[in-house]
């Protein structure tokens, strides 16, 4: 593996947690292994690993972009990651308000619903 892969895996574990990454790695197949390498090197080893923007702000950007583009499936995962990146519930609410203004109220509303459900699950686990 490359240095970028190793860096990406370290950042991925820092943001998403060992349990999440271990589950993803355990289900990796020959078919999706190249994709997993791509996102580990590109997303985690390049974008998330950059020190130009702190992890807290990256969480807020990621959540806003996911909501704005209607890619809701990954919102719960990134809500959970906020506990590791330092993005607060208020930070997330502010990001979703931007989504409402710039990308549409229905998308922000659905993202808020997912965030509330995820926080309720997290609170129940504590």
TrEMBL record:
Provide any one GO MF term from the record. peroxiredoxin activity
UniProt domain Carboxymuconolactone decarboxylase-like: residue ranges:
35-116
List the InterPro entries: 4CMD/NDH-1_regulator (IPR052512), AhpD-like (IPR029032), CMD-like (IPR003779), Decarb_PcaC (IPR012788)
Q: Which Pfam families match?
A: CMD (PF02627)
Q: Which UniProt keywords apply?
A: Lyase
* PANTHER family according to UniProt: 4-CARBOXYMUCONOLACTONE DECARBOXYLASE FAMILY PROTEIN, CARBOXYMUCONOLACTONE DECARBOXYLASE-LIKE DOMAIN-CONTAINING PROTEIN
* Listed name of the protein: 4-carboxymuconolactone decarboxylase
Organism for this UniProt entry: Thalassococcus profundi
């Amino acid at each position: 593996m490359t240095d970028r892969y190793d860096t990406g895996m370290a950042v991925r574990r820092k943001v998403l947690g060992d349990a999440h990454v271990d589950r993803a790695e355990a289900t990796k197949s020959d078919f999706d292994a190249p994709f997993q390498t791509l996102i580990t090197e590109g997303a985690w080893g390049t974008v998330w690993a950059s020190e130009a923007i702190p992890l807290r702000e990256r969480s807020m950007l990621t959540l806003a972009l996911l909501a704005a583009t209607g890619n809701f499936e990954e919102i719960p995962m990134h809500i959970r990651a906020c506990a590791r990146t330092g993005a607060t519930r208020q930070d997330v609410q502010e990001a979703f308000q931007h989504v409402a203004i710039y990308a549409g109220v229905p998308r922000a509303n659905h993202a808020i619903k997912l965030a509330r459900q995820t926080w309720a699950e997290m609170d129940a686990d504590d």
